[in-house]
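Please fill in the sequence for the structure shown.

STRUCTURE ENCODING:
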């Protein structure tokens, strides 16, 4: 039996699990989309609007106009590096699929890029509230991008099975910022083996992240090594810290758990599939081997 993530298990009984969802109806008036997914530490987000690239500045200005505090999880450099990769590959990419939307910090940037660089965008999450909140944020920020966007409830292996026979799934790029648990990330990356000829690259975040509680198995970079080997060809993206960076909330003696960032490790990786090969899985596996919670119906 494949590994089952306890967080995903909370939502796997949803009737639409493992399927694309209809776009949610608009919120009434000026209702705050982030209220659908409460979180502590909310702030008004700000993207730099003084970059050399005017397209970035235009997208950033519209993101900054969102009037509600939210919680975007990547560094500013990570957002900029993802934008630049998509800009450079604008004539290559037909589809971006994002795993793990949370409050839509990356999703809203990708929606702006979908307009600017003309690609389709699929948003994937196990939590329907996260998908709804993110979709409403995009609706407020880039309403003209909505025809390019689909939302999918489930894990990456569910999504892969749903698109395996889709002739329009090609020249795709994954941005992965979903579960950071080793086994789940291995499941996610392994499932791409079955659509590898249609995936141009993987952009994966938090490869420098650790959790102070080892029971969280927070080893994204180790999952990359499990699938592609210990020396994959990749381009670092995002912030690299010169020393370990700990949250002030960590109190090791009292058992308070929090995350920290590793010295010298990049925040994220761009992994071009043409320059790497899957060491796991193999041709003996089937996509169903990596689907812990099959689609309902």
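FILLED IN BY: designer on duty
SEQUENCE:
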């Amino acid at each position: 039996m494949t590994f089952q993530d306890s967080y995903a298990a909370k939502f796997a009984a949803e009737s639409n699990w493992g399927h694309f969802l209809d776009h949610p109806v608009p919120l009434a008036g000026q209702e705050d989309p982030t209220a659908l997914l409460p979180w502590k530490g909310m702030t008004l987000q700000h993207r730099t609007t003084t970059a050399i690239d005017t397209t970035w500045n235009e997208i950033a200005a519209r993101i900054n106009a969102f009037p509600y505090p939210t919680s975007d999880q990547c560094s500013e450099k990570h957002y900029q590096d993802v934008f630049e990769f998509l800009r450079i590959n604008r004539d290559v990419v037909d589809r971006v699929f994002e795993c793990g939307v949370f409050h839509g910090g990356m999703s809203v940037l990708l929606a702006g890029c979908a307009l600017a660089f003309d690609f389709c965008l699929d948003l994937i999450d196990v939590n329907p509230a996260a998908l709804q909140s993110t979709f409403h944020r995009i609706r407020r920020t880039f309403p003209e991008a909505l025809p390019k966007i689909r939302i999918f409830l489930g894990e990456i292996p569910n999504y892969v099975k749903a698109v395996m026979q889709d002739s329009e799934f090609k020249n795709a790029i994954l941005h992965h910022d979903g579960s950071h648990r080793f086994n789940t990330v291995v499941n996610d990356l392994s499932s791409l083996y079955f659509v590898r000829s249609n995936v141009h690259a993987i952009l994966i975040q938090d490869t420098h992240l650790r959790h102070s509680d080892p029971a969280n198995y927070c080893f994204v970079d180790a999952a990359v090594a499990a699938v592609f080997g210990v020396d994959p060809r990749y381009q670092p993206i995002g912030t690299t810290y010169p020393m370990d960076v700990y949250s002030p909330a960590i109190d090791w003696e009292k058992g308070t758990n929090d995350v920290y960032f590793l010295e010298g490790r990049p925040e994220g990786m761009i992994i071009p599939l043409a320059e790497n090969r899957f060491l796991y899985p193999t041709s003996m596996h089937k996509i169903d081997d990596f689907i812990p919670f099959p689609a309902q119906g």
